[in-house]
Amino acid sequence: MRRRQLIQLSAATLAAPSLNALAQAGGDFPSRPIKLLVAFPAGGPTDITMRSLADNAGKVLKQPVIVENKPGAGGSLPAQQLQTSAADGYTLAQIPLGVFRLPYTTKINWDPVKDISYVINVTGYAFGIVVPMDSPLKSWAHFVGWAKANPGRLTYGSTGTLTSPHLTTERIAQELGIQLQHIPYKGSAELAQAILGGHIMAAADSTGFAPLVESGKLRVLNTWGEKRLAKFPDAPTLKELGLNSVQNSPFGIGAPRGTPPATVKRLHDAFKTAMEDPSYVQSLARYDMLPMYMSSATYTRFAQETFTKEKALVEKLGLARAS
After folding, report:
1. Predicted local confidence at residue 21, as pLDDT
2. What is the pTM of this model?
3. Cα–chain-centroid distance for residue 153?
């Protein structure tokens, strides 16, 4: 009996480190709900599509993935919150392209490349510029002509300062030699209210504006993809208008720096499966968005390359902060 007890005790002692290592490696992950921070308000295209993705991922992970909206600050708040979150995989964040511009425009004490564990890229936006249907700006030529005749008076809104809609519009204006007046909003829903209420003359946004175009309230002047959008076949691309620009602003999901590789892989695999679910593809199609997969390694390289490119863009537009 004593010998049997000693054998059992020895076996338990040997097994303990293995079980502990398994836990550290994410073998029991997840054991509770996961929080996914989304950079834009509820009700917009980002929120709606990310909730679909989160629901699908939760089914794979056998734990709920709960979306929490953190709008404002050009979409950088979720990434900032990762800096004070435990590196255990239970707090994730949407990473909009604007995060990579942050150090060039704002003094921060963290690095967007080094201080985030990049899990997976999931999609990107379809963008365009819209005006009210009753606007005298019936085409892009009218828009540019009015802006040239009235420097600084043509107002347009975007989903936030230093977001892709803002910076791309400013790059377009610079290339055309026109001056526009930018007014930032916290998200697509607030931006839509502003243009419908007559507070701004135009809006640069993702195609969350589609229902308002289809209902005859807004007109699309251009879109920013490589090709025309099937939903708006009469709207020219920037390239067709002679502007050498394509913008689809890829975004994905990040975790805090130091998240165990096994946990990152578990999350990556779950969200990749979630991306392939028809319900997610359908939710993207509602806004002319497509799945845009990048693995953890590819997404990390994309972050490094984009960080360098965005520095050049911010400096070209004269928006870099004083050092």
Report:
1. 37
2. 0.79
3. 30
